[in-house]
Amino acid sequence: MKKTTIFGFTLVELLVVIAIIGVLIALLLLAVQAAREAARRMQCSNNMKQLTLALHNYQDVMFALPNDGWFGWNSGVTNRHHLGIHVRILHFIEQGSLYETMDTTLNYTTDWAPSGYNVSGAGNRIAGFLCPSSEEVFAKNDSGGDERTNPRWYTTHYYGNAGSVDNTSPPVYPRATTTNPKGEISALGVMTVNSKISLDNIPDGTSNTFALLEISWYNFWGYRGWHRGTYIHTSNSSGNLNTWGYSITSCKTIRRDFYINIGPRSLASAGGISAGHQQYRSVGSFGSNHSGGINVSLCDGTVRFLTDTVNMNTVLAFGTNDFGESVALP
Fold first, then answer.
1. 310 half-sphere exposure, CB direction, 13 A CA radius
2. How does pLDDT run across 128-181, given as a tens digit for each residue?
3. How many CA atoms does the CB half-sphere of 15 hold within 13 Å?
4. Interatomic CA distance for residues 90 and 103, integer angstroms
5. For the sheet containing 81-83, what is the strand order?
6. Which stretches within the chain are classed as H helix?
7. What whole-number distance in Å separates Cα of residue 23 and Cα of residue 317?
8. DSSP secondary-structure letter at 214?
9. Number of other CB atoms surrounding residue 96 within 10 Å
10. Could you report the per-residue pLDDT of 242-272, keeping only the tens digit for each?
11. pLDDT value at residue 75
């Protein structure tokens, strides 16, 4: 009688095969995750491209780039809580109908009336204002809770370049107050408090000046409603702006010690958020959930990926519009 030989796996061989399959699955998952993040980063870049083109279109109509707010001194409450740059470009990102429901002569809270147009307008989620790699989509207050709950306000991850401090010039406006600092405010960029700068009046050149920068990292406490702009804390009738207390929201100042991805690095190294940048509204803690940097747009309409190892002297230079620096982005 002919013997039949039965071939099989030993336990060791089976375990080796399972291990190999596990490694292959892990590699595949990593590849899928990397591909998804690459797609999200590309979408984020496209968001910034579209918003920068909207800034161009706004400027063609209004002969200047939008600003963070401010229409001259007024002690009345209606001039304290301004609408920011994102409201002003709604017409140019196919959100004209939403713009028509908002009133730029009123507060971003419409004096806190729950039925106010500006309040309900911020309850609209604008996908082009949000980085797809971030889960932080709602506005927050200084304690990390929701800034507005009825309706919840959505935020934005893209901020106008207000300008740089810590280079060859002091800040144009100092901290908002000495007891509750919100950071310096610069007027050396292209969009800041009451600015009226056009693209054809940027001496450093549109390809050497930031238009928008990204803040989309987790746990940043400075997220505010996408419609918000200048907030006036205190004012006086003297007209001396340096004695006023206010914050800018839709645009941000660039500061040397707020290097790219300071937030994610602080979280990784210290397990918490540094108090040095947690409460600042006017200074940007630029960072993202993209690996190694953030997306930025230049005034010429191009979008670049700015690594978190970039020299801050370069960042400060691209934050100014008229300093004549001869630098290039890496």
1. 29
2. 999 999 999 999 877 777 887 767 899 999 999 999 887 555 555 544 444 445
3. 3
4. 13
5. 81-83, 228-234, 245-247
6. 11-62, 85-88, 96-100, 117-121, 262-270, 275-278, 312-319
7. 46
8. E
9. 10
10. 556 678 899 999 988 889 998 888 877 765 5
11. 43
